[in-house]
UniProtKB/TrEMBL annotation:
Keywords: Glycoprotein, Membrane, Transmembrane, Transmembrane helix. This is Platelet glycoprotein 4. It is found in: Membrane. GO terms for cellular component: cytoplasm; membrane.
Amino acid sequence: MCNKKAAGIASVITGVVLVIVGIIVGLVLPNTVQKAIEEEVCVNNQESPGYKRWEGPIEITTKVYIWNITNRDDFLNKKEKPKLKEIGPYIYSTKSKKVGVKFESGKVTSTSFDQAKFNKTLTKKECPKCNENDKVTILNSAYLVLMQRFGSAKDFSTALIPYALRIWISTLNYQNMGNQNSTYLQMGQENSSLEAAFGSSAGKTFSQIEMRGLYEALMDTSKFGPFLNPSLLKKCTDISMPYISIECGLVINLGILANNSQNVSSSVMNIIHDILCPNNGSCFNATYNNSLLVAGFVKHALPNFVMKYLEGQNYGLTTSRDQSDISLGYVMSNLKLPPSGSGIPVPGIVTSHASESQAKTTKKNTTFYTCESSMEKRFSYAAIGGETNVYPKASKERLKVHGYYTQFPGQESLKPCTTTYSKLSPSYQIFLPQLLLAIPLTYKKDARVHGIPTHKYMLGDNALKVNNVTVFTRGIFDVSRLFRGPLYVSLPGFFHADKSLHKELNLPSPQQNKHSSFLKIEPISGTAIQLKLRIQMNGVITSESLLESFQGHNVSYEKKFIPIWWTETSAGIDEETAKEFNSKVFGSLKLACSLLIAFPLIGGILVVIGIVFIVIAVKNRAHIAMA
């Protein structure tokens, strides 16, 4: 009897302990898991457990699709609309690592050091006929930006006259075995067949001394005009306050002469003479009539010569070059303009740095709020390149750098028997630093990635409605201020845009599975474990992009969006990492659930058994006492 009672008491105590332990472990273990996850995603300093994962490198895959112009000549010369053919994908694999990391006041600043390589294996799987150096023809975004930078094709072709002439005359001197006198003599012949010969343009013959005086002035930027000095150029061209000076250069003073031919001041004529006739060995006879001939030469013939030079160097309205140049970038080496004087770099579609130092000097850094900031700010963008605002004329909401990228707020507490959680927000603002643009992604549905429950967020059509701030045409984001040229971003194939845009160019109807953008967020950690960002770059030919008198162009497809290329950038968790995540997170939660259920259940059974033993022992003792 004593043994039964003792056993019963022991059973009750054990059962109670198991119930308590089960409840405690079942409730504490999820909090331990949640704390471990937070330590992994909260990178507050270089000693944080998740720092190495955050720093990288990470693997990013970019698929490049080119909108190849198949009727280049007819498009440029016969007023035809461009015929576009999508080719690709050309696939690039990028390793991206954060460098120049600095933690300060609840923020972390870093720069991405990206190294991209053409992935021949993946490319051949998706596009067997695609090769890294395939020749493609596209609308030249670099040309469009250059024309706007200078104000117009007219302004550009005028400003570039000294540079184009220097290259051309240097070539002629080489052909004449260094005999400059022979070169200048050819330039002054009335029947000269040379492209930029003044003699043939003026319809009369000039001496080599006169041509030396003229062309040396035309090739000397300090004498030609202040076209790369905005403040002086503005002063020299201010009609309300005329500024007549030799520092305004030859072209502007020739313009004053041509526009005021009936009442030209002697000071203007003297300036023109001083520029064109600096000494007896280099002296153009700057009579009134001769000066008017030079004015017409500079206004019409030479800008055409410059545009023809641009076309000849493959820098014109369209460009035909290797796909790798378009994807990784190239240098317009024969267009040496200040301040570098070493050619104009054209960025590629895919960013790739030669070194960490290049990344730090050429790419803007990004600043994020860390977990030491408030719950509302953590993981979101704080600044780009040290600036917290993007555009000077936008509304306060769109002016500010804001939004997330791949890390979002996660669950603040976990439940032991729950592996799926409701979405924390119906939408998120995603900030794209390369476009200085925040776009809203809206919850679409629950989805699984390698067995991990996620919430799928997509860029919906509501995000591309006209808002008169960043979207002025449905489906088109205006990024012209960022690129300083008529360039615009959309989803590929004009997905979610006005249907007339793809119909106008006879493009296939865009499809959601190929042309939409989305990310999938694991709700416990708040990490986007799968991302596909699809972007299309479009250009617009404006009247300022074309030189009206240029005989090499007869383009009519103006003020309409022309696709240039589109990309699909993807990153995500692999199957092996997904298994590890499942094991650590969901395995621990399942264990907590098991303990929460099993220990109290077993404990409860032991308590019941113990009570039964105690009751039996007490009854037996009562029977003995009665006997």
